[in-house]
Amino acid sequence: MKETPPVGLDSVSIRLAQIFNGQEPTTALSDEGSGLEFEPDLKIQPLDLSEQDPPQAWAIDGGQLQILDARSIQVVATRASRVCFSQKKRVFEEQGPLHLSLLGGTQSIQEAKEWKIALALGEVLDTKLLREYLEWKALAKTIDDSVEKAIVFKDGQLRPDDRIEIDQVVSLLEKAQEKDILLVGFSKQSSLSKGSMPLLAWLSNEASQMFDTTRWWCPVATYSIGGQKIRVVAAKLDSLSRFSFRIDFPAYLDPCFVLNTIRAVSNDVGFPGYPYPLSVADQLATCPSWLSQEIKQLIDDSLDKQGIPLQLREAAFFDRHELMERL
Amino acid sequence: MSLNQIRGRLFGRNVSEVVFRAQPDEDLFIGELLVGIDEITNRRYLIRVVDISYGSDQREPLWAQRIAGRLLGDDSGGDEGFIEEHFLYEPSRRSYQIAECRCLGYITPDATSFQKPKSLPSQFSQVVSPEPSDFNFLASRMGDLNIGNLRSGEQEVDFEVGISGNSFSSHIGIFATTGMGKSNLLQVLAAQVMLQQGRYGLLVIDPHGEHHQKLAQHPWASSTLKIYSSRKAVPNASTLRVGLGELSIDDLRVSYQWSHAQEEAIFELERHYGKKGLSWLSEFCSIQDLSDFRENELSSRVAPATLQIIHRRAKRITGLSIIASDSSISVGDSIIRDLQEGKVVVLDLSALDSTEELMIASYFSRRVLDEWSSQYLENPSKHSRMPVVGIVLEEAQRVLGNAKSKGEGNIFPRIAREGRKFKVGLCAISQQPKLIDDELLSQFNTFLILGLSDEKDRNILRSSAKQDLSALSKEIQTLMPGEALVVNLEAPFAIPAKIQLFSQMIKHIEPLPIERKSPPNVSALMD
To answer: I need a surface site. Which of A45, A277, A290, B470 has the fewest CB within 10 A?
Structure first.
């Protein structure tokens, strides 16, 4: 039987084409709920090359995994991994312990207490927050461990989740500045937009029409963390890179210096233009699906010992999708 | 060879095929012998690398191609005219080598015996370089004719490799393309025979005169080497003479191409003259008027053109310097005596063309087989004390090929099929084993294989060898000059060897002892 085209195909395609053609009524810059102060004009500039080779390049990334889900309660696992490179060699790696949490309803409050996360009234604890919390803790440890003039990458923005105590982040930024450590937030994907048009895609297109060179950068916005000003730029750091990225760093630093320092560790031939240490941290932090099976078994063993019947556990957590016949 | 250095980790595949992963910079070679250590059973599995390929954990199917393309782009200076260097960070974590191996067997934990593979080594066992003691089990199987050292990939191992001199009776094949070291190997074999104090005899048919000078440098040559030459200017050589009456029609049939009518005519002439061997050729040659002879003596039973061809060839044969009409000056008996004494006899036939060379080779081979078989039948006691004799034949496919081997009267296939019980064997040298008859090749129990570039040649050896060569095609193809595989029934697998250089080998031979023990075959002659 021939499958009919999905409802709305034409409408969606036409609207997408309008976005990519710049035919939207508004083309204002935005990044939902981020509190960014956007540059009045987007000035795309060729990236002047200079040799910067940091003595150490650290990277921190987090991983998360849902283990059990009964909708009202969930068991999740999170971790944050760290890695350090020096002279293009991995000199340190720490996958980080896997943290199990029970979330949902009153359990989240209990969990927040155990993690010592101060939640304001009405705020909830979720996996994203747990993961980010671990990432900031790992970042703090890394600032302590880094040598002067090291570069430290954090996956994503430098702006913390609103639920994370800002003072801790501020003191971390100050400590980094004291040690002359370059702290960089590097986002694989960004919600920055110009109207509905993904901003990084728009900038890449514009840059390709403006310059012969294939390396460029563009100041996009700034934001403040407890008085510490952070600059947000979009940049394509390598001629072989297919993509540009959002990069956050303290605004007191010279952007070309920062971008060339990042470039010095973003020249892996497998993923040029992206910091190699960060891709390694990503690999370390990833929680593969087999890990979920392992942890489920451990929880099952424990519940068995505590006399919780299997039928009850299955009734709560069994994923009904497994019984469905899907083609 | 480095000890205990981990070369890889084994992860597959089955009892006979082993696959292991190695670091990208591990220096692996096809043909390398390695050991998989089973820590549970303490068995040491001997494995041989038969192929090496690239591996990567990257999920992207064309990852390696992409990386190569980018690095190539850097090599050419980039699109924008300035250098932007890229690196492959941590290559050892992102790419690796996969080594495909054959499991040869395992050494028992007490290191006393070697067993064919019937079990799997534990998965993820360490793969290490072998220790010298890992080859101890081979020592008793290497025979008395040392031809070189064990080879692992391109590395020579301090372990002597050889074959038994008795292998001559079950036939030895030496196969290689030009320049791979056939001549050196033969000279090494001959030199080893010369050291065996009469236990073996070797008749070397030398069509190019390349061996006698070399072998004459052997410190024991004065008493263990005999050279017969068709040329006069060869020092320390006896003149090679063969009586016409000693040659047979079979020798003619092996060496020349004859039509059926021509063969009939030869038999007609033999009947007409009624003389022994080919002695009638002298008389036939002297005929001036062939037409008259044909009409009156043969009653026109032979076509004129046929008779002319035989006449022309007969003149050529009788005109050869080594052919004597008087059989009493033949060296046939002398050569048989030398071989019975366990000497290496070199027949320098460089003055002859290949056809006549085959005729002489056929004659002497027949003499040897006749002598050894008659002693076997008539005097078993004496035969038991006679040495094993090998007959070395270059370009053996000429007489062991499909067409020739089926022809009646060819002595060489007969030796291949029957020689073993009489202690007479062939040492066939060929660049094209594919041209040798399959059935005859299967009679050869020992193959000494040097580099062979032709796939058909490798295939034919694979199907006839006494060990499994099915996975060694690449190894044979990539053998360098002097590198060989020794394939026989004694060794449990095809032994990789580095053949020693004859010129080096003879430097290490002590001069002949002044008082040598009489070899057993000499005492047999005294009887």
So the answer is: A290
What confidence score (pLDDT) does residue B2 get? 44
Q: What would the pLDDT profile of B27-84 be if each residue is shown by its tens digit?
A: 999 999 999 999 999 999 999 999 999 999 888 888 999 899 888 888 877 555 456 7
- Domains, chain A, with CATH or none: 45-285 (3.30.2170), 289-323 (no CATH)
- Kindly determine whether residue A239 and residue B80, on different chains, have CB atoms separated by under 8 Å: yes
Collapse the DSSP code of A282 into the 3-class scheme (helix H, G, I; strand E, B; otherwise coil) and give the result.
helix
Report if residue B85 sits inside a domain: yes
Look up residue B135 and give its DSSP letter: G
Interface-testing mutation among B80, B86, B92, B93, with chain A (most A C-beta atoms within 10 A): B86
CA–CA separation, B371 and B422 (whole Å) = 9
The helix/strand count (H/E) of chain A reads as 9, 14
CB contact under 8 A, B84 and A238: yes
Does B86 contact A at CB distance below 8 Å? Answer: yes
Angle at B247 between CA B245 and CA B248, to 5 degrees: 105
CATH number at residue B344: 3.40.50.300
The whole-angstrom distance between A215's CA and the closest CA on chain B is: 11
**Contact criterion met (CB < 8 Å) for B89 and A276:** yes
Instruction: Measure Cα distances from B492 to A318, B483, B496 in Å.
Output: 57, 19, 12
State the nearest Cα–Cα gap between A83 and chain B, in angstroms.
13
Q: Above 0.90 for ipTM, yes or no? A: no
Angle made by CA atoms B487, B492, B494, in degrees to the nearest 5: 30
Structure-token match 């390049």, residue found: A57
Q: What is the mean pLDDT of chain B?
A: 88
CB A236 within 8 A of CB A216: yes
DSSP letters of B402-432?
HHHHHSTT-HHHHHHHHHHHHTEEEEEEES-
| DSSP summary character for residue A120 | P
* CB contact at 8 A, B176 and B431: yes
Same domain, B35 and B120: yes
d(CA A121, CA B418): 103
Cα distance between residue B269 and residue B280, in whole Å? 8
Q: Do B70 and A214 touch (CB under 8 A)?
A: no
In a domain, B292, yes or no: yes
Q: At residue A117, does pLDDT exceed 80?
A: no
Q: What is the mean pLDDT of chain A?
A: 91
Lowest mean pLDDT among A51-65, A84-98, A110-124, B65-79: A110-124
| Domain extent for B287 | 249-318
Tell which phi-psi region holds residue B126, choosing left (phi > 0), alpha (psi between -120 and 50) or beta.
beta
Partners of residue A276 in chain B, C-beta under 8 Å: 89
Q: Evaluate if pTM is beyond 0.90.
A: no
